[in-house]
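Sequence in, structure out.
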Amino acid sequence: MSDQPEILVVGEALTDVVVDRDGGVAEHPGGSPANVALALGRLGRRPRLLTWIGADARGRRIEEWLAASGVRLDPASRGAGPTSVATARLDASGSARYELDIRWDPGEPAPGPVDLLHVGSVSAVLGPGAALVRRLVAGPGPLVSYDPNIRADFLSDPGRARRDVLALVRAADIVKVSDEDLAWIAPGQPPGAVVAGWLKDGASLVIVTRGANGAAAATPAGGVEVAAPAVEVADTVGAGDTLMGAFLSGLAGTVMAGPAAHDPAAVRRALGALPPEDLRALLAYGVAAAAVTIARPGADPPWPDEIKASPVAAGRRPR
């Protein structure tokens, strides 16, 4: 058995139709979970992605896009009608407002070991496939990573969506959330108090991304902050997904490497007690990766030699 963890990402892959601030239109494969898988693949982790795409030209382009970066597509991912589309309209700062046309009804993932399961975004709360997501994260099993990646305009019942999101937060070991998402999930509540509550409820690690203000991470052992490097922003599409993928890749190469690769319980204990310097190194790696993505159009995560930071933790260099 490999001494690297087996990683399964579950969630939407779609076509991002990006309308820039001058009205220009470009298409890129994307989708938050698919972007996380892409970042993991480019960093050498060979994840498997369970998604839901069609047999159309957009679906074929997504398959080629994933394969070129070392992402393995789960066989149950094929069978949708038209491939889903997200239209991102950029404002003057490069921030995106989304319009979504998503279909989500994948089959059961192929059998096989899973040590790290990442879920998130619209597919985690969109029926009928959300029932599969809930079942995969329930109970003892792999380490679970979750990114709500809220798209409020898409949610017809915000109250129910909040309940579904919070149920997934309680089931997850690692939660990555933007400051905007945190304000939507827990309106009017101090962010620090919300994060502390999630850690008390069972999360081993919570990451909060704050755009130009960098990111913060907290465990029951304490918290750290990392500033964002100054870069010229092309757009912010895929930035948080890249941070998540790079962080998980760093985790796979350090805390989850070797004998711990297939021992989620041991990884949970290690995460909860992660020394601040190791947590900061992993978070800095994710922030540096995201900085590369926002400097170029679309969700285009970096390759290893493009990241000017190292996810060294516990005195070990990532494998």
